[in-house]
Specification:
Blueprint lengths: L10 H20 L6 H8 L3 H7 L3 H22 L6 H9 L7 H14 L3 H26 L5 H23 L4 H16 L14
Helix pairs in contact: 1-2, 1-4, 1-6, 2-3, 4-7, 5-9, 6-7, 7-8, 8-9
């Protein structure tokens, strides 16, 4: 996963970013439960004591990884290109490249799997979905489909997220694209059930 850098980061910010990027590499390779501070330090080319200087414990490192790296990556996926209509942004979520690479998808799947056993990870992911990602998806849909009832907007945003998640989960399991295409088609049909976008008048209107 890519760690976003804005402007000229301080050395401390640069070191944190290097460690978090190394964390993503190790999680994709070894799985989150097997990810150790020593492994992250080795992947970052740093001493373990230096990793502990920036992250005082493994739990703190995992928390920062979810809250900074995973949060930013999910936000980027959901926002997409704001100049594109919702239908095009939805298509991009089902297309190759929605995840930067296979490693990013494995990292996300690792977190979801761990959430079933680790309440701290579950709480952090729930916070991202409930307080950030789903509200942003609803905001975007409401802006493009202003005549759609709020309950339809909320239900559509949630169901689209479920369909995208299922699409990529099946991808990891080797389910052939023709079968997964049905998920994309279902998502597109759900989107068209909303009112016409504000900049596309209803042709049936008088």
């Amino acid at each position: 996963m890519t760690v976003k850098k804005l402007g000229r980061p301080s050395l401390a910010r640069q070191r944190r970013d290097e460690i978090l990027l190394a964390m993503a590499t190790v999680v994709a390779r070894d799985g989150l439960p097997a990810t150790t501070l020593a492994a992250v330090a080795e992947a970052a080319g740093l001493r373990r004591t230096l990793v502990l200087h920036y992250f005082r414990s493994r739990d703190e490192l995992v928390a920062a990884f979810v809250e900074e790296v995973v949060s930013a990556y999910g936000r980027e996926m959901i926002w997409g290109d704001p100049c594109l209509p919702a239908a095009d942004r939805l298509d991009a979520l089902f297309a190759p490249g929605a995840y930067a690479d296979e490693a990013d998808l494995r990292v996300w799947t690792e977190l979801v799997t761990l959430a079933s056993r680790d309440t701290a990870v579950r709480d952090r992911l729930r916070h991202l979905w409930a307080d950030h990602w789903l509200p942003e998806a609803e905001r975007q849909l409401a802006a493009e489909y202003p005549s759609a009832p709020s309950e339809d907007i909320a239900a559509t945003a949630y169901t689209l997220a479920c369909l995208v998640e299922a699409h990529w989960t099946f991808h990891l399991q080797g389910i052939a694209e023709p079968r997964r295409h049905h998920l994309h088609a279902t998502a597109t049909a759900l989107l068209t059930r909303l009112s016409p976008p504000a900049n596309h008048p209803d042709p049936a209107a008088p």
